């Protein structure tokens, strides 16, 4: 479904990703793990069009995404839940979800999408009229996720969904992500919480200083091997 | 000692003045909140629209309301033009360059107006009555300008709250990158915002030209006041801009009656400077 071939990208003179090649098949959940500063967020931003690739190509459902802007990428069916959630703090929960369905194709299916999101996250319905900034961290993460689902994506990019959440909330969040998976969405997730994320996904990549170091099926990869590689460097 | 009735009259006049000022401040604030660039030449666009109304009414004999609509349309077009020709190329530039570019437009418009229409003060003469209400004398023109300003601001409020694109405009002012991830083309949102901000300048122009005469340096007279109101209300804060407009025009109006017109402005500017030390974030500092 999504394929990156030799993608190199960065900011100004700084290169954050070197020659990254990875694949996500339809229906799969794939994780990219790695320590801070390994280029995980840049990887997500290149796929969603917020950062342009300097070299290499990105192919989504047979079409190249190279040179496409973020708002065009969403229309192709890729929703990016950014690091730090980035909900609109002074808009209500309902308005945040409305904005998720901004593009015409999503707007046409608004009522149906909204019912689905409210089924997945009932707390959002209860908080409908509240400004998003007044929600707890976990609720904001649900809103960010719900807002992404409103765009009717085929592929969801999740950047550090568990960041800044209380440990109990992290467990609940991964349960919710499993439910989102069960709905048939394809997921590419970047996480520091290796233990939890390996239980969620089918395959995982290890990213280190901007390069892919390891790849494999989640079941076969011992958490220890990944953690050692990622955080101890052995 | 000044009689209370004069103070009351000044207070009412201050409220009436605040309408158009709030309209200007809201237009400028709307654009700043979304595009993140201050249009230094904003009130000079108003000046151009005032000339349009003047010529349409006094030379071509159009009815005032039609000329006002023409002014609204010209304002929207100018807004689009400024965004496409001046703002788009400098979106990613350093703030000082953005100030220089929109400041350059200010000098261009002033010189252009001087060249075309000379520095004569031009006035749209209206035979509208002075109202006497409970012993106070109020200008009917000002009352109309105030009511129309309020209606326009109410319209803007409904637009920003109720429509899809209006909500998107508020969303962009809170997080423009996140709104791009929702599938909104930033340039489209900027253009809609600039057209609305421009239309508000056009409307303000029509409401100002029936109260004041127009000349190429009109922007220099009202521009600083508009910026002060924006900053005092907190840049990008719409409610704050409205409150600041009322506060400033009350100071100018009451100060003008109690001491003198010039001192009214002096006091207003002093209050502004003091407030910048006391509440640098604006009168109503946003929570959260």
Fold and architecture overview:
The complex is a heterodimer of chains A (234) and B (288). In chain A, strand 9 and strand 10 (211-217) form a beta hairpin. Chain A is globular. Chain A has 10 helices and 10 strands. With 234 residues, chain A is α/β, with parallel strands linked by helices. Chain B has a single domain (4-119, 131-278), classed as Orthogonal Bundle (ABC transporter involved in vitamin B12 uptake, BtuC), CATH 1.10.3470. In chain B, a hairpin with a 2-residue loop joins strand 1 and strand 2. Chain B is globular and about 60 Å long. The model of chain B has no long low-confidence stretch (mean pLDDT 91). The interface between A and B is medium-sized, with 28 and 18 residues.
Poorly predicted regions of chain B are none
If you consult CATH, what is the topology of the domain at 1-67 and 186-234 in chain A? Answer: Rossmann fold
For this structure, the quaternary state is: heterodimer
- Main sheet attributes: strand count, strand direction, barrel closure of chain B: 2 strands, antiparallel
Helix content of chain B: over 70%
Please count the beta strands of chain B (DSSP E, at least 2 residues each). Answer: 2
Q: What's the helix count of chain B?
A: 11
Helix content of chain A: 25-40%
| N→C terminal distance of chain A | 33 Å
Structural class of chain B: mainly alpha
Describe the main β-sheet of chain A briefly.
Answer: 6 strands, mixed
- Element order of chain A: H for helix, E for strand: EEEHEEHEHHHHHEHEHEEH
Rg of chain B is: 19 Å
Ranges of chain A where pLDDT stays below 50 over 5 or more residues in a row are none
The SSE order of chain B reads: HHHHEEHHHHHHH
Task: State the CATH class of chain B.
Answer: Mainly Alpha
Strand content of chain B: under 5%
What is the approximate shape of chain A?
globular
In the CATH hierarchy, the third-tier topology of chain B is known as ABC transporter involved in vitamin B12 uptake, BtuC
Strand order in the largest sheet of chain A: 6-7-8-3-9-10
Q: Give the terminus-to-terminus CA distance of chain B.
A: 46 Å
């Amino acid at each position: 479904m999504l394929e990156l071939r030799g993608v190199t990208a960065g900011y100004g003179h700084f290169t954050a990703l070197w020659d990254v090649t990875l694949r996500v098949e339809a229906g799969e959940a794939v994780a990219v793990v790695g320590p801070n500063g390994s280029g995980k967020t840049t990887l997500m931003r290149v796929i969603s069009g917020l950062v342009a690739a300097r070299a290499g190509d990105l192919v989504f459902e047979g079409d190249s995404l190279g040179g496409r802007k973020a708002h065009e990428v969403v229309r192709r069916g890729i929703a990016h839940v950014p690091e730090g959630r980035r909900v609109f703090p002074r808009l209500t929960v309902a308005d945040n979800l409305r904005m998720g369905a901004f593009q015409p194709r999503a707007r046409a299916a608004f009522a149906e999408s909204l019912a689905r999101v409210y089924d997945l996250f009932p707390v959002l319905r209860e908080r409908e009229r509240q400004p998003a900034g007044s929600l707890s961290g976990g609720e904001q993460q649900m809103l960010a996720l719900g807002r992404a689902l409103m765009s009717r994506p085929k592929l969801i990019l999740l950047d550090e969904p568990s960041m800044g959440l209380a440990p109990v909330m992290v467990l609940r969040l991964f349960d919710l992500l499993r439910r989102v998976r069960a709905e048939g969405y394809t997921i590419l997730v970047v996480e520091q919480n290796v233990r939890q994320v390996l239980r969620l996904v089918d395959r995982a990549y290890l990213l280190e200083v901007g390069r892919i170091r390891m790849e494999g099926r989640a079941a076969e990869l011992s958490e220890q091997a990944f953690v050692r590689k990622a955080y101890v460097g052995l | 000692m000044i009689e209370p009735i004069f103070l009351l009259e000044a207070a009412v006049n201050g409220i009436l003045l605040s309408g158009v000022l709030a309209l200007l401040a809201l237009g400028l604030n709307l654009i700043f909140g979304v595009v993140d660039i201050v249009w230094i030449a904003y009130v000079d666009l108003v000046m151009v629209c005032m000339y349009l109304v003047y010529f349409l009414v006094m030379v071509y004999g159009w009815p005032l309301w039609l000329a006002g609509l023409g002014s609204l349309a010209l304002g929207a077009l100018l807004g689009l033009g400024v965004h496409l020709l001046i703002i788009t190329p400098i979106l990613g530039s350093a703030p000082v360059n953005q100030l220089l570019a929109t400041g350059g437009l200010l000098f261009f418009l002033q010189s252009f107006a001087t060249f075309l229409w000379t520095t004569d003060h031009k006035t749209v003469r209206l035979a509208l009555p002075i109202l006497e209400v409970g012993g106070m004398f109020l200008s009917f023109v000002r009352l109309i300008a105030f009511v129309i300003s309020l209606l326009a601001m109410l319209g803007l409020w409904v637009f920003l709250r109720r429509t899809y694109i209006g909500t998107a405009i508020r969303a962009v002012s809170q997080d423009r990158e996140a709104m791009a991830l929702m599938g909104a083309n930033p340039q489209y949102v900027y253009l809609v915002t600039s057209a609305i901000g421009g239309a508000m300048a056009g409307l303000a122009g029509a409401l100002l030209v029936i109260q004041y005469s127009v000349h190429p340096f009109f922007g220099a007279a009202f521009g600083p006041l508009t910026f002060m109101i924006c900053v005092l209300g907190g840049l990008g804060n719409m409610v704050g801009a409205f409150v600041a407009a009322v506060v400033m025009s009350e100071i100018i109006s009451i100060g003008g009656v109690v001491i003198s017109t010039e001192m009214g402005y002096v006091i207003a500017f002093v209050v502004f400077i003091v407030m910048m030390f006391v509440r640098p974030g604006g009168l109503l500092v946003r929570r959260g």
